[in-house]
Records
---
Amino acid sequence: MSLEDLQVELRRVLSPSARLEVAAPLGARTTYRVGGPAALLLEVAEVGDLAALAQQLAGHTVELLVLGNGSNLLVADAGFEGIVVHLGGGFNGIAVAGTEVVAGARADLPRVARRSVDASLTGFEWAVGVPGTIGGAVQMNAGGHGAALAESLVEVDLVDLSAGTGAVETLPASSLDLSYRHSNLTGAQVVVGARLGLAPGDRQHSQELLRDIVAWRRANQPGGQNAGSVFQNPPGTSAGALIEAAGCKGLRLRSAQVSTKHANFIQADPAGRADDVAGLISLVRARVLEHSGIELHTELRLIGQFAERVDG
């Protein structure tokens, strides 16, 4: 089935609130704000839209990308030739019951962190400084400040678009093979919600911790057009320290520059190019390998075909 034929069929079966866009600007939907369009973007309004998509995809091979806040993506200037699935506002919910927090996949991590603290729960304060969503956090086992989602995740609800039926499955966290910035979920498995298990805490203490985390990030991490940490931290050291030791802090390649504030951040200029960011990633990796003998691997997700090869 061609994407054109798929559009026709999807418009017939999707809910009235779903939105389908052809040649949709994709880079602009990421925090890098560079990169090309998606061949097709589907914003789903309800779980039934995911079921409709799964049924239409049955028996066909189409590249899929689930998009949250776009805070961990770099989209190639050539764009993305498949279907981008974006969850709408109906997946924003957050509910607290005892020591458990149930959150929709589109719920922002800082909002979930603050809601949990307001409920006098502890264990999720670290997420106040991470500009992602619950769905994205599950996919990559997001973390920060010495903690990670795996420590509080109980189970997830998801729809496997490759299964054909579009039924919602509930999986325990123990089945996701969660490790440092990793889960075993595929690009076709769309997280729609998650349940967190937290602990009773001291609300005032947790609020102070939130303020400390926000203040630390403002003092130590750059603003502007970036997607947070580019490289994973190798065991026993930090990527930022290795990059700085290799003389790459402040290094520029056309419209991209290694941050002078934090060497594990690469910033894009306004109206810059994703291929410049990708080229700088390759350059930094090569210089770190030459200087320290350590090969860095990206935490950032690279989407589409770049002008030059960028190994993860």
---
Amino acid sequence: MKKLFGILLVFICVTLIPMAASAKSNSSHLNRERLEVGRALVEVTYDNLDSIIPYYTHDVQYFDPVVEINGIGEMTEFLYRLFGSTPDLITTVEDEIAIDDTYTATWTMVGTFLIRDEDGNVVIGEDGQPVGIPYDAKGMSIIKFRPKTTDVWYQRDYYSEADIMQAIPGLDAAACGFRFYYIFAVDPSPELPEGCELPPPPE
């Protein structure tokens, strides 16, 4: 009986150890590549935009709180429009993980939306520089890869539109108003939302 158990134990070890080693090495190598790709897609800038587009598949799907994109054609146009409107956009990854076929990261983005006139031309100020509205927001991204590849077929970016609205005259009051009423409705220890002031008392 002991001999049979010993043979069985040896068989199990011989069978499983190579599989475990292979899975570990393949997974860690692929996940390191996916970390690099995911970070490159999140931290893309105006200057390296061309280099990241090939990572997306022809049928890529992209979502954020406002935009829905289907296909590489729309994705490419979206990215060029985005960086055409905010060429100084910088996104910095804070925490990230790649596991199975998914990359997830939290980040902070900072940039300036250029103001355009009715004809679509960028407004130039008296100092000769483009006029823009600075903004910043925190968010997170979920990126999904085709199995065993670094080909990205899905990306969703989450962030609060109100973080951006707060910097835009005319929208700032609406953003602060919602945050004010929401936080005092649900927060047991409410404080004024950062960057917001008390609304004027009713007349």
---
Amino acid sequence: MEGSIGCWGKLIPPLRTAVDQERLWRALQEGSVTTMGTDHVPIDLAAKQCGGAQFGEIWTARLGIPNGMEHLLPVMLSAGLAAGRLDVEALVRLACANTAKVFGLYPRKGAVQAGSDADLVIVDPSIRGTIERGFYHGVAHEWSPFFGYPIHGLARLTMVRGTVVMEDRQLVDTCRRGRYLRRPLAGAATIHAPAQGLQ
């Protein structure tokens, strides 16, 4: 995300400087940051800009960016794995296992083992491309501060509980597969677990 992006970059947490970004990468590598998440606000361009323009009134523009769940993995594959900041094991821990542990869903989620849900993503790290208007599938596909971002790796297949739902970036299953999962209340021991307990 280089150059000026105007109100498209209004989000929480805020965009960080290159220096801040490198410190955050070190925190991931050292284990002081143990999970990854993303801003995901499915609003279209008109709703984002609230009657203004991309370089219009920053104070009235809505917070958030769209499709965060769609570009999180490609960005982690590109800026993390391809750039040598993370190996594939660390990426899986950060994006899957540790997050499932924080939410009290491990090992049903975040693990590949007997008894776990077969939620799998198969990636091809050799794919090259760019995030642009044709990249997104969600309601807000016409705008993103990530437009122009170079991709080095992309998901080729996604499974939900053993069923293939996406293949070669095309939805191949339209069944509603969301399911409420009961989990324990988040107590102090879960929220403040030491980094070594999440690795």
---
Amino acid sequence: MNSPYNVAVFVGSLRKESLNLKVAKALIALAPESLKLTIVPIGELPLYSEDLEAELPASVSTFRDAVRGVDALLFVTPEYNRSLPGVLKNAIDVGSRPYGKSIWDKKPGAVVSASPSPMGGFGANHHLRQCMVFLNVPVMQQPEAYIGGVNKLLDADAGFVPATRTFFEQYLQAFSAWIERTAVR
């Protein structure tokens, strides 16, 4: 087998007991051998301003270097006000600058939106996809992952209940195939 694809995982919630963080960790535990998923923290990034480029904070350099070296991107996010959380949008902006040096360019991506509500973060999922179009990130189209009622889909060990586990095993296999087709290695 070839070496696994290195996948940066971005969690759109900073809460310590975030359901989306639990989903990300459960996905890491389920990942097939073809994928190595690693959470890249975004909570310490300063709000993006072009002034940052003059004297780059260490957190920005560390973040950009971590993402620059991966093969693919996985976004796991809640929905805030029918859109993506500000912390995630900020990370996207920090990584897209300076102009012409985006860390996102040509990296295959996938989006999982999860929420206790029945809609499963549909708005966040689609707004994030819109951002990725401009950033030249080919996002996996199928299967889609809008996980409603996520608070009832995690078991006591912070894994997925059986039907959800099966869905995500298939999802991650599809993501691996998507990366294989679209990655620039």
